[in-house]
Amino acid sequence: MQMSDDCQRDVLIVGGGPAGLATALMLAKRAWTNITVLEKRAAADYYEPDKAFNYLIDGRGQKLTDFLGLTEELANISVPSTDFYLTRIKPNGSRKTLKLPIVNPNRKPAYWLPRRAFVLLLYQEIKRNWQGCINVLFNTECIQINQADSPNTNQKTIDVVVRTDTNNLIHFQPYFLVGCDGLYSTVRQTLQQWDSPESDRFEMKCFPSPSASLRYKVLTLPPQFPLDSDGKEHAACDMAYVIRGRFRDRQRSVSLGLLPIKNPDEPRSANIITRPNHKIWDLKTSETLYNFLEQAFPQLPIRQIVSPEEAQRFALSEGGAFPTPQYCAGLYFELNNQDRQNQSAAFIVLLGDAVHCFPPDIGQGVNSALEDVYILNEILAKYENNLCQALPEYESQRSPDVKAVVQLVRFAFPWQYNQAPLRRFFWSLNFFGRLILSRIFSPLISQPAFLMIQDHQRSYQDILLKANRTTKILSGLGLVLVAGWLVIVFRAGITGLVFW
Question: Membrane-crossing residues (predicted)?
Answer without folding.
Answer: 431-453, 473-494
